[in-house]
Known about the structure:
Shape: elongated
Number of helices: 18
Radius of gyration: 30 Å
Helix content: 40-55%
Strand content: 15-25%
Order of helices and strands: HHHEEHHHHEEEHEHEHHHHHHHHH
Largest sheet: 5 strands, mixed
Structural class: alpha/beta
Number of strands: 7
Amino acid sequence: xxxxxxxxxxxxxxxxxxxxxxxxxxxxxxxxxxxxxxxxxxxxxxxxxxxxxxxxxxxxxxxxxxxxxxxxxxxxxxxxxxxxxxxxxxxxxxxxxxxxxxxxxxxxxxxxxxxxxxxxxxxxxxxxxxxxxxxxxxxxxxxxxxxxxxxxxxxxxxxxxxxxxxxxxxxxxxxxxxxxxxxxxxxxxxxxxxxxxxxxxxxxxxxxxxxxxxxxxxxxxxxxxxxxxxxxxxxxxxxxxxxxxxxxxxxxxxxxxxxxxxxxxxxxxxxxxxxxxxxxxxxxxxxxxxxxxxxxxxxxxxxxxxxxxxxxxxxxxxxxxxxxxxxxxxxxxxxxxxxxxxxxxxxxxxxxxxxxxxxxxxxxxxxxxxxxxxxxxxxxxxxxxxxxxxxxxxxxxxxxxxxxxxxxx
Length: 409
């Protein structure tokens, strides 16, 4: 009990000594103040560990003839979120002292790695992190060390990518982002495939990310097969973009899945064929289609759209006509559930965050560098997913009626 009382007193002494002549502004803004405080606290803790190891206080007569004693100190440079600093590590004569707060061969305190990973997750490059740590904390950190810290994430990514998944997902959103990645010595456009599931509780789950060639249905077939191999037995609704062959790829692995094309993608693709001066009017008329109360009303709205714009913009009409069977399923659901189904807003929002952290990079040197950045960014984004999707209980009740025994009780 005596030592527990003494340690806080020692900490108080260190703080008082370091801050005796400092102003409030210096305490808040001077990075060296925090470094010095951490240095002294770590050294104080190491001295306490040595006392525990030997069984007596420094200079105490209890240590006479015990067979072991203090044997000076060795200097060691360590890195921390507050910067880098030298510490003095006590040694014992027998050489069997094993410090815990800073272990042998340990050069980074716990907070340092988390700081680097947090900056990396925000899209900062290795060089930018190096400059940031130097500017803010006067810490000299090599790009090689930063890469070593971030590379440690790859084992975590591998375990996450191969983890078992739920047997049933009411909704899975499938989409891709496109990045420039160096492959075979040259920079190529590659697709990063993302699967975002909504589980039975209405919570969002990132199911995985895959890197392939430019987006295609054949690669999506590989993704869906992997989901099946990881335990997914049924997907009630798959919300996807208008990629040719996508519905067929889904049907080959999950034949009972209802495929719903994302309306946001369809509107965006339609407007590609429309000049700027007419886009607002065309978008307004397209909205009458997907906000119609029934599929019959939507069909009438599509016919009216074709009559008004078909001659000028036949491809805008074709975008809807050729995919109509995969557009209309959401009309069979009540209004509150429709928006959950017919738009991939959930995955679009995620992709927007992924683009945010990748936009500063002209290209990525390797596939692994992409995996590190996107995994950390997605882990950061998923921390905000604390609430189930709105109106989820109503959706599940309706799903249980429509899909029957496919919805687990």
